[in-house]
Amino acid sequence: MAIKAGAPSPTDQEETDRRDHAAMRSALSLARRGLGSAWPNPAVGCVIVNGGRVVGRGWTQPGGRPHAEAEALARAGAAARGATAYVTLEPCSHAGRGPACADALIAAGVARVVAAVEDPDPRTAGAGMARLRAAGVAVQTGLCADEAREANAGFFQRLGTGRPLVTLKLATSLDGRIATASGESRWITGSAARDRAHALRAAHDAILVGTDTVAADDPQLTCRLPGLGGRSPVRVVLDRRLRLPLAARVFAEASTVPTWVLTLGSSSPERWRALRERGVEIVAAEPDGDGRIDLEKALLALGGRGLTRVLVEGGGRLAASLWRGGLVDRVVWMHAPLALGGDGVAAVAALGLDRLADAPRLELASIQTAGGDIVETYRLAPPGAGRPF
């Protein structure tokens, strides 16, 4: 449907809005393809439309380059002239390994750019949109802004606080247990929920576990869904004394899947060398007041290395430490329809709370089924949020 000249009628405007929303949601879907592989850059999607027809699509490629706009423009070719580009994040205004995306859109002759949200990176932060306007390109911002911020919540978090977004994944019984009293835990949730967990791994930059999990389960911590084997995230292990065996699978396979170990400077130099010989990267961590790894500083170190999204698959002690430090941003809770009782192993160890008012509060973001299990996703409630009833 062509847009009539002059002031559009309400019907024309409604059709334009509908098309804009559809194109931006398509761009957001493309952006999510880059989650887990685009770091240290944001995962961005771009859709280019000309004459009511999609002429180019793109999303941020592994390692953060090429950018989504460059990918979409390459596919659109000459059809980009006079088109509208829908981008989930403001086009960058700084040149890196390629030209700035704002300049590339201008050079391609794009007539209009619809960006969901402004880029918080101080190298752009509004400058991309200003450059487009100065070149005569029509600019609109704010379309699907909340969805775009959520898609890149990790990138926003790292730029705002220096640390990555932390998602705590729990696979439990209905009463919040991750194992029986004897330690049996395979498998509480079913295969569909486990597949969902592997998809979560593919969408995160790194998996974080502690020594207890590696010692008890000897996990691979890889993505083993068909077609996603190459999307395994960085495996990060907290081992302050380097006491884990060198034969652990996370170390034995370090030459094929990036593996980092956070440890204190007082740990054995011989163990440092032995791990490095296996391809493990050692990250020096700082102690807290109890001589353990300071988790907040550890996360800042991971953010400094470019990580934006970390999935925590550790045990109850690590979960509790993160809660106590105010370091949990999201929770994905997969729970099976069975009860293990109070003598089972708790998903979250003691938090030492005396008052309900001190308990971390969450907001339900989504609820889905996975086979016979339930998958609930929560976001940390904003400061000051009270009880929802």
- The multimeric state of the shown protein is single chain
- Average pLDDT taken over every residue: 92
The percent of residues in helical segments reads 25-40%
Main beta sheet strand tally, sense and closure: 9 strands, mixed
Distance between the termini: 47 Å
Which ranges are low-confidence, i.e. pLDDT below 50, for 5 or more consecutive residues? 1-5
Strand order of the largest sheet: 11-10-9-8-12-6-13-16-15
Describe this structure in words.
- It is built from 12 helices and 16 strands.
- It has helices spanning 10-32, 68-76, 101-107, 127-134, 145-151, 153-161, 191-202, 211-217, 249-252, 269-277, 295-304, 316-324, and strands spanning 45-50, 53-59, 84-87, 112-115, 138-141, 165-172, 177-179, 206-210, 234-238, 259-264, 281-285, 309-312, 330-335, 345-346, 362-370, 373-380.
- Strands 11-10-9-8-12-6-13-16-15 form a 9-stranded mixed β-sheet, with helices on both faces. Strands 2-1-3-4-5 form a 5-stranded mixed β-sheet, sandwiched between helices.
- Helix 3 (101-107) links the parallel strand 3 and strand 4 (112-115).
- Helix 3 (101-107) packs parallel to helix 4 (127-134).
- The protein is globular and about 65 Å long.
- The N and C termini lie far apart (47 Å).
- Mean pLDDT is 92; it is low at 1-5.
